Structure formats: structure tokens, C-alpha cells
């Protein structure tokens, strides 16, 4: 019955929305002002700014430009050689003082340190016209290699640092790059703000920049989001340039192949599938889609992907533990969405007080992981190579997924991005999704559905850990605070745990006939043997849950298809005997009705996020300057609305809201087709009214 209703609704949507997957990226050049910001797609300037603001507060708390800290490490695709050495560089950009401390470098060799300001529009791979500054040599003190240099007060006035590089003595960064550290998008944004030109990033392609002389965008931003200033403070000289940066980042994310095998980020992170992909979506792709390169490019036919597991279960082959033994050293993982890459979903748990560095130079954290990696990306929380930032993840993804051959040679099998491209891709990704975490406790009494209210209660009940009965205690918030990815015990940080998903019996990927090689996944880290098998310490990074219900299957290996099944995982013997946390929190034991209540809550908060996003897109559609842009925004809004309907139908929840969402979809579609602005605005307003009704059916205002 439910399935039938769902099918009918889906069919209706497909008929009215025609072929939704065909989304047109704005054909306009980036320099034409676009008040609707159609070119940003799901990206939003407000989200980027809110994300930036959080970073800035932290940066200034740690000393700001007097204490800029960069991690330095081996850097996939860019480092020469291979080493586990790593360390930190600290800059005082005001007085020009730099200190560097590296663990794990050979004491029998001498090493130089360089800073690089990449030439605009050039690859971050080193080139002749990059500005390279030799700042000194490392001296060995015990196991640590250090340098302290005073470059003078004006050293950083005109030098926009992109990279810091440790080379073998006597070599320049074009000849040797043993260790590398990079600044991030937010460093560049901070610098542009210091220079009174917020958002004007030093390495952007100058042709695509357009100065905002009129204050036009300031007015637009204030117009569409009166709350923006309240949330993120006054925006200094915003921000045509940032809009362009996100727009370019989006184009690059969905179109740029980096001279590789034809894939783009969007090959796996689909815009019309919540920035992820699953087996159902894969089934509708043509055989020549670049996702399937392993099926038609002979050089990639072995040890690159497993087409059977890809097609049946949406699993992608990854070599997070290194490319040294391709036939057996790999893991099969689902594609996570890239929504809500907020600071607190990237920040590692603090170091163990007084911890001494491990032999590889990394510092142990309180959740059993280490720093580096400096940011938590990917299922293992160690997704990015080298120093482990979201910025380096881009390069890691290119090296992993884009090569023409398995030699994976830079400038032969793919090219590396420019500094500007890295900024843009980072800007797009950090502009996606929510601006902040929910507050489930204050939402709880407002939910209209009593089962959903119960779901919150169970989710936020700590049971025996807090000296209360274990019955009805979901203990979910310990790890997924407010259904985000930050942690109750380590607030503001994104912790790793071994919840023993690997220990589940009868996983779909292990049942596939004929049997496929599917090695144990050791999660975090490249070294050591996980207690549950594989390379690493066995822990996985806690994912956000608000965006979960419409982005299944669940867990790192796509082992569970439904959200109810994913909640029920916490009843399993696997979890309750997990080496990570299962037993330590007195176990989790939920009755079937309680499982459904928690899942209902997860469904409903997902739908509220769909509604927020659809509303944002429809509001922008109202001020679009061309019909093509209006159409594009309407398509994106419809994909959110369609998810909302499916997620509610799947849980038998909020039938009135289902209808309201459906009608909102119909009106949003008509608004996208409207031939006059007046008609479009009227229809968009009707869609918005239906969205309001839907939201009101779910939660009191
Ligand atoms: C062939 C499929 C594929 C392609 C192409 C691809 N990704 Fe991914 N992406 C994945 C998979 C699989 C994971 C999980 C990786 C892991 O756990 O190690 C992932 C994870 C991520 C994450 C981590 C999300 C999180 O919540 O931690 C980010 C960010 C990301 N990808 C960005 C990109 C970017 C940027 C590109 C393009 C440069 C890209 N991806 C290209 C499959 C892909
Ligand atoms: C000890 C920490 C911990 C607790 C407690 C916990 N989780 Fe998780 N959760 C995780 C980790 C870590 C993952 C990722 C595991 C993996 O993929 O191997 C995860 C994954 C999930 C996922 C899959 C998300 C996705 O996008 O694939 C869901 C859903 C989920 N948890 C819900 C819950 C619920 C509901 C509860 C309470 C009943 C709960 N979790 C309790 C740590 C925890």
C-alpha cells in the first residue's frame, strides 16, 4: 500500500517535472550579477559565511594572525617520495616570525624550508613563476627537527602564502617536496578581510572577478535574508566575489575532469541525489557514464573499481591505506553526501593532555585517533591524505578516482587543481546545507506527532551512564549531539568510534553471488591492525543524522537499506559487544516500537531540512533574472520536495504534510515554467504557502 502510494507520487512527479536528472548549470558567465544566485545551486552564501564566521572566531581565539598554525605532512599527488614524518608550522604574520617543528624526519639528512605564493591561475604543482622563498634549514634536536626564522615585519605584506614545503637540503620546491602544508580557503578569506576586500581572494582568476562598486549585492543579501546580519554579523564589503567563487566551485565540482578519465566530483556526488549516489540511481545511468570507466577503459579494468558491488550496492573502491598493494589493499565504501560540512563536523577531538607524539609524529587524541589528520573527512575520519584537511581531500579524490591509468602520475594521468580552483571547490562544499546544528530539546515539545516526540526523548536519554534506568534509553546523543556529528563528551568536535558495523553478519556485500573480494575495513589510520580486521584502529567517524533519512543506504559499507534498520543496528550483538563504545555505555536495548519512534524522528527532521532548503531555492527563484535560472532553481527545489514526500510516505507520517508538499512541488514546477515574472512570483508564493502548511503540520511555529 505504502509502496504503491510512493510509486504513484514519484510517477506523478516524474511526469510533471519531466526528466529531473537533467539539470542545467547556469550558462551565464560568472561576471554577470545574478540576484537569485542560481549558479550556486544548493550552495548558499549564508552557509559559507556562517561556516567562515565560526572558523574566524576560533582562529582569533587562538591568536589570529599572530598564531597561524599549519600542519605539514606527506601530501598525496604533490609530495615527492613517501614518508610518515609530519609536524606544524606557526606563523606570526604581524612580526614575520616563523617556527617549524617536524617529527619523524631522517636525522642523517639535512632539510630546507620554503614558503610559496603560487602564481594566479597556476596549478598548485610548483611552476617557475611561483614566488618561492627559502626561509632556512631545519636543525635536529633529539627526535624533532626545528627551525625558527625572523623574516621581518613586512614579510607577509605582499606574500599570500599558499604552501609551506620541506625539501631535501640544497633542492628547491620544484625539485623536491618531501613535506607540504597548505593554507585553506578560510585563511584566504580572512586575509581578504584584513585587506578590506572581504571575499576578493588573491588567487582567483582575475577575468572572472567583478568588483562590487554599487553595493548591489549587499542590498540583495540583506533583502533575501534579513536575519543574515543577526546570525553572522555585518558582512564587510561582500561579496560578489564569494558568490562567483561558489559558482565556479559548483561548475568545477560537476564539470571539471582535471584531464583524467572523465569523472567529476558529481559523477558520485550527484546534485539531483543529495550529493551522493545509490544503486537505484546507478541502475538508470547509461553504460558510458564515467562512473563505469572500469567497464570500458582497459587500463582501469582491474583493481580500480568492483563493477558488481558498484551496481548492486552502490559501493566504490577506495585505497585509503595506500596504493602499494592494489589487488588486496582496498575497501568498499558507500558515497557520503557532502552536505553540512560544518566546522564541528570536521574538528578533531582534543589531544590527550601531555601526550607525547607517536613515532610518526602525530599527536594522540582523546577518542583514540590522532592529529594529523587535522580535519575529519570520509567514513574513517582520515579521508584526506597528508595533513588531512578538506582542501587536501579534493586532491585525494582526484588521485583516487580520476586517473587514466593506475600509475596515477601527476600531469600524465590527471592534473592537479590551481590554488584558485581549490578555493572555489572548498567554497562550494562549505556552502552546502545547514548553517548550524538543531536544538532537539527545544524542538521536542513542538513536534505535532507524539511518536516523534517520543523518538526525541529516546534519542536524548542517556540511561545508566547518567544514573537512570536503561529502559527506553537510546543514548544516541552521546555521539550524535542534536542529530549532528558533534559529541556530548567532546562538544564541538567530531569523534571517531568503533561501533563494530564491520562485525555484522550477513552483510549484503558478503552475500553477493558470485562471491566478491571484500576485505575488512579498518577505518581510521593506515597502520596497525583493527580489532575488527583491516588496516587502521577500527574506528569510524560519526556522521551527521539530519541528512540521513533521504541518503541511505546506511553506514560506511551500505550494509543497511532502511533508516529503521539503521536505528535497529544499535540493538545488535555486533554493536553491544563493540570494542569501541557499545559495552562502555551499558549497551543499548530498544523495543521495536522505540526503534520506529527514533526513526520517525530522524525522518521528520530530515523533511524539515528538505523544507528549509526548498524554501530557500523558491525564494531565490522569485528574483531570478532569466527563465533558465528560474527553471534550474525550481528543479532543485522539486528534488528536495520529492525527497520530503518519499521520506514521510516511507514512515507513514504526516499525511496532510505529504499532500501539502506534493502541491508545493506542482506549484514550484509551474513557477519554473511561467512565462512572466508576475506569474512566476505568484506561483512561487503559492508553493511557499504549501510549504508553510506542511511545516506547520509537522512542528508548531
Ligand atoms: C568514484 C566516486 C567518487 C568521486 C568521483 C568523488 N567522490 Fe567524494 N567520496 C566518494 C566516496 C566513496 C567517499 C567516502 C570516502 C571514504 O570514506 O574514504 C567520498 C567522500 C567524500 C567527502 C567526505 C564527506 C564527509 O562527510 O566526510 C568529500 C568532502 C568528498 N567526497 C568530496 C569529493 C570531491 C571534492 C570530489 C571531486 C574532486 C569527489 N569527492 C569525487 C566517492 C567519490
Ligand atoms: C558510540 C557512538 C555512537 C552512538 C551511541 C550512536 N551512534 Fe550512530 N553512528 C556512530 C558512528 C561512528 C557511525 C558510523 C559507523 C559506520 O559507518 O561504520 C554511526 C552511524 C549512524 C547512522 C548511519 C548514518 C549514515 O548516513 O549512514 C545512523 C542512522 C545512526 N548512526 C543513528 C544512531 C542512533 C539512532 C543512535 C541511538 C540509538 C546512535 N546512532 C547511537 C556512532 C554512534
Question: Mind explaining what this structure looks like?
Answer:
With 701 residues, the protein is α+β, with helices and mostly antiparallel strands. Among the domains are: 57-187, Immunoglobulin-like; 241-429, no CATH class. 34% of the residues lie in helices and 10% in strands. The chain has 21 helices and 15 strands. It has helices at 2-17, 45-61, 185-194, 216-224, 228-232, 240-255, 279-283, 293-296, 307-313, 343-346, 390-401, 419-429, 440-443, 450-459, 508-511, 563-568, 573-576, 592-622, 627-650, 655-673, 677-698, and strands at residues 68-72, 86-92, 97-103, 111-117, 131-137, 139-141, 144-150, 163-168, 179-182, 316-318, 331-333, 363-364, 370-371, 496-497, 540-541. Strands 1-2-3-7-6 form a five-stranded antiparallel β-sheet, with no helix packed on it. A hairpin with a 4-residue loop joins strand 2 (86-92) and strand 3. Helix 6 (240-255) crosses helix 12 (419-429), helix 18 (592-622) runs antiparallel to helix 19 (627-650) and helix 20 (655-673) runs antiparallel to helix 21. The radius of gyration is 25 Å and the shape is globular. The two termini are 32 Å apart. The model is unreliable at 1-8, 14-31 and 206-237 (pLDDT under 50). One heme C is lined by residues 263, 265, 267-269, 316, 318, 320, 333, 335-336, 338, 377-380, 383, 390, 393-394, 397-398, 401, 425, 429.
